[in-house]
Amino acid sequence: MRGSALFVPTLLAALCGLRRGEIAALRWSSVDLQRGQLAVVQNAEQLNKTVRLKEPKNGRARTVALPSLVIEELKTHRLERAEALLKLGVRLSAEHFVCCHDDASMMQPTYLTHQWLKKIRRSGLPVRRLHDLRHTHATQLLASGIHPKIASERLGHSKVGITLDLYSHVLPGMQEDAAAKIDEALRRAIGRPEAD
């Protein structure tokens, strides 16, 4: 996706777990590159050919910590957007959308979906939805041992139970890992060697 308009949306979905409407509605005012975080405060809802900005899906804003790779790429993207807008006589402001067209207009959620599918089909890769990157992010969080509550907050689920219900398929292997860790800690505490 590098070099395409889908590069930053792909990063935000895969590495931050944002929904396509959250990506479309994200403004620079909600991105703090010094602190390494962004705030999800709006969601773009597609209504046929129009879009309305509303509160996030669960009704609450959330803060998402940014991986260093995303921070680096957003810094580069911001500079490129500022330079491109200056050529049009427009100064980049905090109210501009992070992911926008060349004229600074919002990329609608359906545009992101259509462009994603077009690019994936041309690549020869298995066809997956843009939203599947969000699922991949959630799965990787849980498989890496991140506490489900943190994953839930990062994804913007209203309750940790939603996260656990959606991603319970990740947990079986984690159960064995948890049992092994408990066993190791208990054996250390009582001074018994590991069982053969």
CATH class of the largest domain: Mainly Alpha
Please count the beta strands (DSSP E, at least 2 residues each).
5
| Uncertain spans | none
> Which shape, going by the Cα principal axes?
elongated
Task: Give a description of the structure.
There is one protein chain. With 196 residues, this protein is mainly α. The protein has 2 domains: 1-127, hpI Integrase, Chain A (Orthogonal Bundle); 128-196, no CATH class. Helices cover 51% and strands 10% of the residues. The chain is built from 8 helices and 5 strands. It has helices spanning 7-16, 20-25, 68-87, 109-123, 131-143, 148-155, 160-166, 171-190; strands at residues 31-32, 37-40, 43-47, 50-54, 62-65. The strands form 2 sheets. A 3-stranded antiparallel beta sheet has the order 1-2-5. Strands 3-4 form a two-stranded antiparallel sheet. α1 packs parallel to α5, α5 runs antiparallel to α6 and α6 packs across α7 (160-166). The model has no long low-confidence stretch (mean pLDDT 87).
Topology:
Elements: H1 7-16, H2 20-25, E1 31-32, E2 37-40, E3 43-47, E4 50-54, E5 62-65, H3 68-87, H4 109-123, H5 131-143, H6 148-155, H7 160-166, H8 171-190
Antiparallel strand pairs: 1-2, 2-5, 3-4
